[in-house]
Amino acid sequence: MPNMFSMVNNRQHAARKRILANLYSKTAIQSSPEIRKISRALLIERFLPIIDAAARDQDPVDILELGSAFAMDFISAYLFGLSNSSNLLQDLKTRTQWLAVYHSTKPYSFWPQEFPALTSFLSRFHVRVLPRWVDIASDEVKDLCLKMFKDVDSFSKESGSLSRAEEFGSTEPVVYNQLSRFLGSSTEALSSESSSQPSLSIASELMDHLAAGHETTGVTLTYLMHELSQRPILQSSLRSELLSLSPPLTYHSLSTTTTDSSELPHPRALDALSLLDAILMETLRLYPAAPGPQPRITPVTPTTLAGYPNVPGGVRVSAQAYSLHRNPEVFPKPETWNPERWLRASDRSKHEMMRWFWAFGSGARMCIGSHFAMHGK
Question: pTM for the full model?
């Protein structure tokens, strides 16, 4: 079932984007009470206790696994509400198993992504281009999303209204609510042989948000931690900047803290931290979470691309952040991780750097969750 990411038709894509764009805007993310509740629950109650325990016990931390789990819990809470979301941070067994299965299928994505019609056609004649276990693993990955999808429906029936989530110790399923409002919802159809189009469309859309939201953030956090781990002076500078917030971004054991002392700074205050921003931007520049080709289809009328005139319509073309971010004329010593380049750049230089910055793509089909991703990181 097509979702916003896979839709080729521009009108269909634009219509779906209009439904979701306001939920992922910078203003919405920074002012959302749901995001604030989710941030506190995940950061103070789940993520930081794990880091604190590891530090006290001198235990190593798999930051890719932990970062991916944090991102999965965060995006799923925004999609489905806290009570219906994943809890990979605290459920070690599910975290290890689900992430292992998810990553095991990644090398086999070429055929279904690049030649979906051919893959489907061959399967009708029992000709498999992928091992059978890949289908089983893919179903296991999807099962977690479908479980959360069905739980939202059950939750709404028990509570009487999804807008009363706070009374039941949860947050609203923000994205699910929006999609249901515009596309309709019937989760019973998912368990029947004749699934309804609206239900499948919503499930497909939410599954795409989960995949895109957790993997990219996990990768970015891993590279960020890797670079910071080699620079203790920069760590101290970043710590000082975080402590300058009001309230300061600190952590105390939940057994010794109060609710008030665990409140987080306002997102706009975090957004204004220049060193934190430079570290994030430089990590995304050198290690873009989606470094490969981002395909586009040329318009019907011939066009000019990168100096090549009369490129006919309907041709698949692509660019990639990995190459764009390594232009030495824009990013001197491009293979060097150097957050200072963002702090010391003149207005003109920074404008040029942003023109070449493509971690989230650009134009009508750029990543709709770019502001959500920056907030989560």
Answer: 0.87
